[in-house]
């Protein structure tokens, strides 16, 4: 008999938690080896389902799932899909089985709320219930629980990570770190101490498929690319079997089925699927009328049924490889994660895609939690901590004048990462600078996801182009973004912790990437047009200002030429001409004012010699130079990493 003796002086034990869409697991390291802890269901995987009873009790796991049929609105499953998402998010509408609270304010729109009748809860609170239950189980077995490492999908954006972290805090956990699920799986296999190389993590769960290309170099993991399909998993296999069963029962395909029957059939289909993992055939008696009918399914038939699903995972794998810039032959190992990878034909499919046998020694249901537990132990011991590097799933940038995007941290940049961009004011005496932080691959800000907006105020009045605004991005090891903007001449500073109102799911990421590819040409054109227009307006402004101050330095004839050039540019701008056409007019105005700008400069300098205030001379010189060198002024957005 094994006896666990409790030592009251023993330090708290750190834990690792895999907070899954379908199932969650808590694990801890004992004698250097990770173990899954027993949850309230008595097993190691806890269904991520929470039931809120009418009397106010909260059930988690199998006990909660038992209410799914009778009280679907009060029994919440798959909420991970909605964590950190807004009420307007397309994902929200997909989970239409639930009643959502209609958003009344802008603030409401930022978070989804489930309507339980009499009370509402957010996905964050629901996740906190799952985490609380896991913490309680850990407490019962470990007596004292230390910090926790909680895993998240590699593609989770800032909002989703923040919400996960907050859920853990709400559950009374000290979050040591958020860890990417694929990285956790690689840690569980101890890859960091074994060999350098490029690895793929193939994670087929209940409702989501994630594929990640990881590079390991001297104990440092770097996520090279992520991909997948947020609507693909073991549940789809259940649905395919369920359809067949319904047909055997005489239902037309696509016919409406009573919810009780649908849920019974789906449950039975899942059982058959599990049986087929270990045996070549599986059978069940299905109720029909007063009797039953015999339904059987062979593994071969099942494999034919799910083949299209597996083909889709293949496509996502090839895309991820392409994104990582390598081909299948460059992969040193493939790790299987997720309960659905137990299906033998999934393993064969992976073998075909990558041309090698996947690693399957560790239970695919537990491998992520094991890695999290190991990492929690590493961090707690503060010993030779494994350095974990991940990448940004989508580029981060700021909107510039005219609606274009200046990318500051490109997609797939290794994190933690920092970058600094310098901007300048566009108008004279501009005292505020709007900063709009966006995420995405499109050229125009309106086509990217808006993450945050803020205004840097109290910029001292200066001529356009003189103020220097430094915008610093910092993405920490949990992929959380902070943006700092500073006006360099005054040192005025403002920092925002970016808490985007919406999350991005991997499907959106994928869609945004595809759109960026599809619209590449249009986008570039739109961007050029936006930029040329801004430039044209700037030149017009500067020229008119110069005319007001120094028109006497022009002959009547020169004045006519300048006026004509101004007219030409105004017309091109008003007519929304092509960027080329606008640029031609800018060049023409540039040529018409060239000599005059020189004379204005001379005058400004002469003014300085005559003992005028240096500041005002600087201003004048800047203006004179402005007309001449508008191109430079426009391009004064230097970047430094
Ligand atoms: P998630 O990461 O989404 O929380 P899991 O990794 O727990 O999901 O995977 C859940 C899926 O794995 C379900 O569709 C379940 O039916 C499937 N699954 C679990 N065990 C088996 C098995 N022995 N054979 C086939 N599928 C399985
Ligand atoms: Mg999982």
Number of helices: 18
Q: Note poorly predicted spans.
A: 499-505, 611-641
* Average pLDDT: 83
Question: Can you list the ligands bound to this structure?
Answer: adenosine-5'-diphosphate, magnesium ion
In terms of structural class, how would the helical and strand content be classed? Answer: alpha+beta
How helix-rich are the residues, as a percent range? 40-55%
Number of strands: 28
Shape: elongated
The biggest sheet amounts to: 6 strands, mixed
For the record, give the distance between the C-alpha atoms at the N and C termini, rounded to a whole number: 60 Å
- Rg to the nearest angstrom? 31 Å
β-sheet strand percentage:
15-25%
